[in-house]
Amino acid sequence: MLKRKAIIVFGTTFALILASGAALAQVGVFQADPPPAVVASGDILDEPEPPSTTTTEAPPETSTTTTTTHAPKETTTTTTTTEVRDEEPPRLEITSPDSGAVTNRSHILIKGVTEPGAKVSIGDQRVEVGEEGHWRIEVKLREGRNEIVVVARDAAGNTSEASIVVVYEKKKDVRFTAKQKFEVSMEEKPYEVFWGTAPPGSGIVARSEYGVEDARANDDGKWELKLRLNELPPNTKIKINVSSTTGGEKTFSFKWVPERDEYEFVAHQKKGMNVEPWDVFYGKGEPGTTVWVGSEYGEARTEINKDGRWEVKVWFEGAPVGEEFRVVVESSRDDRVVFGFTLTEREQEKEFTANQKYGVSDDAEVWDKFWGTATPGATVWIVSDFGSKEVTTGENGEWAAKVYFNDVPIGEPFDVVVESSDGGRKVFTFVWLGVGGDQ
Questions:
Q1: What is the value of pTM for the model shown?
Q2: For 304-344, what is each residue's pLDDT tens digit?
Q3: How far is CA 246 from the centre of its chain?
């Protein structure tokens, strides 16, 4: 009974193994190992026969070749722009006024040149610059020394600075004074020139029976006018009255001598005002003629030399300060000319200075401007071989002169000497380049 059970168990196990082998054979090649024998305890079984083997060949391997075609690479052109930063400061130049200028005006116009398109500022005032780079700004001054700083800024943000010093001296009281140029004229047509001082804005009138002319004192208290006497008969001496609307007048004599008299008597005064009590008088006349110069404070005499010239220095001892008095010049030929002289206070003395505006010109009309300071009332002479001028400093010690030069050689510098009666002296040079600079 036990033996039969064992056989049944084996058979069942074998059947399972066969079934499992058949399933594996469908997948691929498989070699089934013989199953272990199941032995009942105490029984010895015969070794079973090995199962049959079924071989199924796998399908042949398939080789797949993949070909990859790459698209051409895109070509990219890169342009690199390197920006060069402008770091150069703009050009900046102050053309007017000159540093150290003295003025009695409370405002002054500053002019200059810079880079076109830049902006120029002085303090909180700012202006745009024109196409040619010119600029101007009016500045209010405080009394005394003013340092004016100008800043220019270009489009790139670069800046330049320039500065000048301007001295503002408040206007002092200006009194009326008047002087004449010729007294005796030998010009083709008769005229006389008068100049002097008066309170700023004063009206000045020169009046005679042959003509009237007026002018107005400028902000510096200076005035000048030209009186034409077209109907004046030759060799006729007349009186000309010069007066101011704010008070003050003076009478002059004038004579027109169209046909030159070699020995016509002429007298001039060098100063008119001085901190020292003296003045110099000079002129022309017939050789051998005696000339007297006198006043209530002093007198002198001389004789006209063989060249027809005379000159004499007169001291005025005891003259009052600040009061004009008469000085009469007479000759032994019955000529007579009257001048005025004022002794000024010494504390009004100023250091001599002289300035030149250009020094070079290419204009058809050749001239230059000179200005500066000297003792009030001092005479300043601007002298050259091609033109000269004489001026008198005002009460504030300032002087200015425009000097014309005639028959000037092209391209040859020449000296212009500026001297004052109080001992000042300075030498400048001037050169004319010809009209338009074409030498």
A1: 0.30
A2: 998 888 999 999 999 998 889 999 999 988 899 999 999 88
A3: 38
- DSSP assignment of 127-138: EE--TT-EEEEE
92-168, CATH topology level: Immunoglobulin-like (2.60.40)
Tokens read off for 91? 């050009």
Average pLDDT, the chain: 80
Token pair 């010494």: residue: 346
Residue at token pair 């001082």: 197
Question: At 176, which amino acid appears?
Answer: F
Backbone angles phi, psi at 26, to 5 degrees: -70, -20
Distance CA 183, CA 229 (A): 13
Q: How many CB atoms lie within 10 A of CB 258?
A: 14
Count of positions (residues) in the chain: 439
Class of domain 177-256: mainly beta
Confidence of residue 11 (pLDDT cuts 50, 70, 90): very low
> What's the one-letter identity of residue 197?
T
Amino acid in position 223: W
Q: Is the pLDDT of residue 82 over 80?
A: no
Taking the C-alpha atoms of residue 48 and residue 261, their distance in angstroms, rounded to an integer, is 180
| Predicted local confidence at residue 334, as pLDDT | 86
Residue type (1 letter), 138? E
Domain spans of the chain, in order of start: 92-168, 177-256, 266-343, 353-432
Taking residues 227-236, report their average pLDDT: 85
Q: Within a 13 Å sphere around the CA of 260, how many CA atoms are in the beta-carbon half?
A: 4
Closest CA to 319 of 300, 337, 341, 292: 341
Task: List 239's β-bridge partners, or say none.
Answer: 253
Contact between 419 and 381 under an 8 Å Cβ cutoff? The reply is yes
* 3 state SS of 36: coil
CATH 2.60.40.1930 fits 266-343, yes or no: yes
Nearest to 242 by CA among 266, 212, 218: 212
Name 29's Cβ contacts closer than 8 Å, sequence gap at least 6: 55, 56, 57, 58
Q: Which helix (H) or strand (E) holds 312?
A: strand 309-315
CATH architecture for the domain at 353-432: Sandwich (2.60)
Location of structure tokens 């009052």 = 320
Distance, CA of 355 to CA of 191 (rounded, Å): 31
DSSP E strands, 203-284: 203-208, 211-216, 222-228, 237-244, 249-256, 266-269, 273-274, 278-284
- Answer yes or no: are the C-beta atoms of 192 and 255 closer than 8 Å: no
Same fold, 266-343 and 353-432: yes
